[in-house]
Amino acid sequence: MSGVWVFEDGIVRRADSDPPSGAGAGGSRPNKVLVHVPSGEVVTSYDVLERRLRELGWERYLYDPCLLQFHQRSTVHLITVPRDFARLKLVHMYDVVVKTRNVFEVRDAAAPA
């Protein structure tokens, strides 16, 4: 990972990255959404995500107070997302996309389905 890294107050961060701002810092994803491609449905909650993953043979895996995890018995893949949907970030969305090829997409929130 290239770039300039700064160590301040015990925290390492990229100096060229945008600093968090406002109330949406951390889990904010103002312009991207996870979409179930076959139905065109935008994933707005973990109920929607879990329902769509179950249709594909994914199961809930272990209990963790901070994370939700799903796995398929036929693969070694594990999808891990934060338990709080508001903390779902772009990296989590792409984790779902990569492990469920051609079923989910990350799209711009303003783009038509």
From TrEMBL:
InterPro entries: FPF1 (IPR039274). PANTHER family: FLOWERING-PROMOTING FACTOR 1-LIKE PROTEIN 1. This is Flowering-promoting factor 1-like protein 3. It comes from the Eukaryota. One of its GO terms (biological process) is regulation of flower development. Belongs to the FPF1 family. It comes from Dichanthelium oligosanthes.
